[in-house]
Automatic annotation (TrEMBL):
Gene that encodes the chain: cmk
Binding positions (ATP): 11-19
HAMAP family named in the record: Cytidyl_kinase_type1
Enzyme Commission identifier(s): 2.7.4.25
Name of this protein: Cytidylate kinase
Catalysed reactions, semicolon-separated: CMP + ATP = CDP + ADP; dCMP + ATP = dCDP + ADP
BP GO terms, sorted: nucleobase-containing small molecule interconversion; pyrimidine nucleotide metabolic process
Organism of provenance: Alteribacter keqinensis
A GO CC annotation given for this chain: cytosol
Gene Ontology MF term list: ATP binding; CMP kinase activity; dCMP kinase activity
Domain Cytidylate kinase: from-to ranges: 7-220
Length: 227
């Protein structure tokens, strides 16, 4: 049996984590795990049930009653909560603008990390998020910290919105992304930060393909081609 190998990709919003993680996983036949979707699913449930996102105990009791399932269908990842397909719902603006408040709570993070570690057990995974290299998979063989300037990240989101016909304002997106980065990087528990052994890749002027090839090259170097 092949040894489990894990690849962690952390970084701020819009850096390209999920886009490249999914394709790196596909190229290597690894399992892709989108941990952000799990925090988003919990946020969606909290908003749906009118639970105050700042109330850790109430959010925690919601999480205890939830089964979050991630499924990959080709290049799309679907998210389910107790069998309800919430893939599109978790991308709603209201969820995006509240998720970092939910992700601040220590007990919530402990529970999420446990679930994520179980998902990665005895598998070869590419996992993306904010604390994968630092907390979820500290022994990952390959760790990437993917960044890009805030303007470029907002521009990418703006383009995504335009492509989908969603109204979008670039300056509002810059503000929202900067606000979320600040909360994620300054929180007390498992903040967004580069693991000491992660390789930083600045994708500001890189194409998606260049980022994928950079990561695949790192995988070859770190695993001596044993992947
Ligand atoms: O795709 P995008 O970068 O917009 O966000 P995401 O990866 O879906 O994550 C949404 C939010 O969940 C982040 O802004 C963090 O607040 C939180 N998150 C986290 O705290 N830890 C993770 N491992 C993943 C996400
Ligand atoms: O997961 P994260 O929030 O880090 O980013 P994402 O959801 O993968 O979104 C990044 C967006 O930027 C997607 O629309 C990509 O097509 C685009 N993009 C990229 O990911 N990487 C580049 N080097 C250039 C563009």
């Amino acid at each position: 049996m092949k040894q489990p190998i894990n690849i962690s990709i952390d970084g701020p919003a819009g850096a390209g984590k999920s886009t490249v993680a999914r394709q790196v996983a596909d190229a290597l036949s690894f399992t892709y795990i989108d941990t952000g979707a799990m925090y988003r699913a919990l946020t969606y449930e909290a908003l749906k049930h009118h639970v105050d996102v700042h109330n850790e105990a109430r959010v925690m009791s919601l999480l205890k009653d939830m089964e979050i399932t991630l499924e990959n269908e080709g290049m799309t990842s679907r998210v389910y909560v107790n069998e309800e397909d919430v893939t599109d719902a978790v991308r709603l603006n209201e969820v995006t603008n509240n998720v970092s408040f939910i992700a601040k709570h220590e007990k919530i993070r402990i529970e999420m990390v446990k679930k994520q570690q179980e998902m990665a057990e005895s598998k070869r995974t590419v996992m993306d998020g904010r604390d994968i290299g630092t907390a979820v998979l500290p022994d990952a063989e390959v760790k990437v910290f993917l960044t890009a300037s805030v303007e470029e990240r907002a521009r990418r989101r703006h383009q995504e919105h335009l492509d989908k016909g969603i109204p979008s304002d670039l300056s509002v997106l810059i503000e929202e992304i900067a606000r979320r980065d600040k909360i994620d990087s300054e929180r007390e528990f498992a903040p967004l930060k580069k693991a000491h052994d992660a390789v930083e890749v600045d994708s500001t002027s890189m194409s998606i393909e260049e980022v994928i090839q950079t990561i695949l090259q790192l995988v070859r170097e770190r695993t001596n081609g044993s992947e």
